[in-house]
Amino acid sequence: MSGRSVLVVAHTGRPEAVRSAQLVIERLSEAGIAVRVLDGEAPDIGCAGADAVPGAVAAEDAEVVMVLGGDGTLLRAADLTRTSGTPLLGVNLGHVGFLAEAERDDLAATVDRVVERRYDVEERMTIDVTVRRNGSVTGTTWALNEASIEKAERERMLEVVAEIDGRPLSSWGCDGVVCATPTGSTAYAFSAGGPVVWPEVEAMLVVPISAHSLFSRPLVVSPRSLVAVEVQRGTPRAVLWCDGRRTLDLPPGARVEVRRGAVPVRLARLHLTPFTDRLVTKFGLPVTGWRGRVRQPAHPSPPTDGEAVPDGQRG
């Protein structure tokens, strides 16, 4: 063995993901790379060429985590790798797969790129979330995409007050509020009417959900800001969801504080594709008729007699 190791995480509820995991394990093992799988997934994958390891230590000292599934599977894997800093490489076997770097048809080539270490790593901003009640901390968590404060009772609106950097902004009667990262701008925040934010932009988004208010526009605030959402007393209880995975109950009077995360998530990139192209591809945006900007010749010919010469080119 080469001393290298790769963790494989799969959506084992999908037969295609199981078959893909088996192929990845086989090809990595042939290349002399040790392969790990989560002990909870090992029986479904059923591949003798991998070591089953507990989730708490699965990503430690691994070179990369190959994630086979959709964005939900990648968010689950991010829980395993956030403290270790191991980069995630997603292969999309789901629907949109915004966080994934490769598609199912590119699986073999993707494994080859891992074997050859031909990938780059970028960091994505996260958010840290603190829940308080009566001044005491009752829970802490984090998110790569978003933290959403949502009503827990369908028949009644949630009454909240939003605060930015210690100053009250507005109260809303609403279904909830989404606090998102740029990475999460194409997820829940997008569905709630928020803007798409390019990943290299450092900012936080605040997006009210179905707010009954004249001022309920999506907000883009500084990454250094502290965003707080207070659940009003006398309102129905609420619930906090982070990345659609981690949840905390929010009784009336609870306060949710959101700030930039201390630890980013690292993503492995095979292609330095512009984010604009990713948007067009993932959302199937219509670009018919685009001709691109007019390109100037590298060595323009001197003007002929009678042809105007731009001021900046006159001798």
Automatic annotation (TrEMBL):
Keywords: ATP-binding, Cytoplasm, Kinase, NAD, NADP, Nucleotide-binding, Transferase. Residues 291-315 are annotated as: Disordered. Its cofactor is a divalent metal cation. This is NAD kinase. GO terms for biological process: NAD+ metabolic process; NADP+ biosynthetic process. NCBIfam families: PRK03372.1. It catalyses: NAD(+) + ATP = ADP + NADP(+) + H(+). It is found in: Cytoplasm. It comes from Actinomadura rubrisoli. The keyword Secreted does not apply. HAMAP family: NAD_kinase. One of its GO terms (cellular component) is cytoplasm. Coiled coil: none annotated. The gene is nadK. GO terms for molecular function: ATP binding; metal ion binding; NAD binding; NAD+ kinase activity. It holds the Pfam family NAD_kinase_C.
